[in-house]
């Protein structure tokens, strides 16, 4: 019995050391810490002048925050005709208009979801603005409380590509099958049906490690400990080309990704139980 106890203590010690090494590895790529106002950071995006903007998750103010190079907030902009039910990601079109996805749907109960489109933040001189509003439904979702086996209508990730918005689902099926679906819809204010384009299996076990939490173009999908980078696709079937999987080591609540250049991304995680609340710079 004593020997088993000693072995258990040794294993706990080894696990602790490995965890500490993973934390150290993760923090080596840390660029900045985010302020308290962004503890639930859920989206990041560079404007056309290279300024970094961020948003918070649901239940917070409907604001965008401009960050300086040290992580301090330089400016905030409130969208006066928006609410933050569950803001999950940001993207932008070729003109620099920002899109903000209010489409978090953890229980798959929301049938009508929202994307807010605002002018290029560079052109917003005030601290308030208004948005064009895109309302949408999934073309194949017919029930506000779908069966557990088809609960794949939560969203935390989208991109703009060639005049369309592409939405990547966060899979909540039971039993979990690891499939993320991509839907397409227009980039203009109207009531729309998001149409299914294709699917990709991230992984089929350990669902918390397989959930897609953000996306960025050149296409990268983010989870709590991985990035999938897609290249050489055909048309708008992003999953038809090559894919590279990049391990991020330690599992944290990673919620946002954006490209710095073709070989570098920024990744942000929420602050949770003393870990996270940072933006990391990662070579891909």
How would you describe this protein?
The chain has 284 residues and is mainly beta. It has one domain (2-283): Neuraminidase (6 Propeller). Helices cover 11% and strands 44% of the residues. The chain is built from 2 helices and 21 strands. A hairpin with a 5-residue loop joins strand 6 (87-92) and strand 7 (98-102). The longest helix has 27 residues, at 2-28. Residues 13-26 have low confidence and may be disordered.
Brief account:
With 284 residues, this protein is mainly β. Helices cover 11% and strands 44% of the residues.
Share of β-strand residues: 35-45%
Computed structural class: mainly beta
Describe the biggest sheet?
8 strands, mixed
Q: What would you call the shape?
A: globular
Radius of gyration: 19 Å
Q: Could you spell the SSE succession in H and E letters?
A: HEEEEEEEEEEEEEEHEEEEEEE
CATH level 3 topology? Neuraminidase
CATH architecture descriptor: 6 Propeller
Tally of strands: 21
Strand order of the largest sheet: 6-7-8-10-14-13-12-11
Number of domains: 1
Continuous helix count = 2
Low-pLDDT ranges: 13-26
Mean pLDDT rating: 91
Bin the helical content.
10-25%
Distance between the termini: 48 Å
Q: Would you state the CATH class?
A: Mainly Beta
